[in-house]
């Protein structure tokens, strides 16, 4: 097997692509960023999403909040045709009815895998911070 070369800048670009897909509010565009057998463990869902239909279903609802993600901290792990970005982020959500904005502080794990020549999200886990900032 030939291993694709990937850099931190490439992985940063994948997050930008993901954030830009959120901005479209199109769940199909977001879902296309995931591998065929991806797993999504989302911040605001108790249900693991184990296929494209379930991942899309999550984003149909979630994108109504006009999410915007910003990375607070990152570490990277690179492997053969896989890469991970792990750390903390803030997702800003907007209430459609009132326009009120809420920042959700969370931890994340993006695991990427090369599929059909394109880097895609193989696993995404995001969970709210368990402790209040002091």
Quick structural overview:
With 134 residues, the chain is of the alpha+beta class.
CATH class of the domain at 8-85 and 105-117: Alpha Beta
Number of helices: 3
For the biggest sheet, the summary is:
5 strands, mixed
Could you say which overall geometry the principal axes of the C-alpha atoms support?
A: globular
Distance between the terminal alpha carbons, to the nearest Å? Answer: 49 Å
The succession of helices and strands, N to C, reads: HHEHEEEE
How would you characterize this protein structure?
The chain is an alpha+beta fold. It has three helices and five strands, in the order H-H-E-H-E-E-E-E. It has helices at 8-24, 27-31, 52-62, and strands at residues 34-41, 68-78, 82-94, 101-115, 118-128. Strands 1-5-4-3-2 form a five-stranded mixed beta sheet, with helices on one face. The model has no long low-confidence stretch (mean pLDDT 95). It comes from Sphingorhabdus profundilacus. This is SgcJ/EcaC family oxidoreductase. Residues 9-130 form the Calcium/calmodulin-dependent protein kinase II association-domain domain. One of its GO terms (molecular function) is calmodulin binding.
Question: Which structural traits does this protein have?
Answer:
single chain; 134 residues; alpha+beta; 5-stranded mixed β-sheet; 3 helices; globular; calmodulin binding; NTF2-like_dom_sf; Steroid_delta5-4_isomerase; SgcJ/EcaC family oxidoreductase; calcium/calmodulin-dependent protein kinase activity
What's the helix and strand layout?
Blueprint: H1 8-24, H2 27-31, E1 34-41, H3 52-62, E2 68-78, E3 82-94, E4 101-115, E5 118-128
């Amino acid at each position: 097997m030939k291993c694709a070369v990937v850099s931190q800048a490439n992985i940063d670009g994948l997050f930008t692509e993901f954030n830009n897909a959120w901005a479209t509010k199109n769940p199909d565009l977001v879902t296309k960023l995931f591998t065929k057998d991806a797993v999504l463990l989302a911040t605001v869902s108790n249900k693991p999403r184990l296929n494209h239909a379930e991942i899309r279903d999550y984003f149909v609802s979630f994108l109504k909040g006009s999410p915007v993600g910003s990375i607070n901290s990152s570490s990277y792990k690179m492997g053969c045709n896989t890469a991970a970005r792990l750390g903390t982020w803030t997702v800003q959500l907007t209430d459609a009815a009132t326009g009120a904005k809420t920042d959700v502080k969370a931890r994340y794990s993006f695991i990427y895998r090369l599929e059909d020549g394109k880097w895609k999200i193989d696993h995404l886990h995001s969970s709210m911070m368990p402790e209040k900032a002091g």
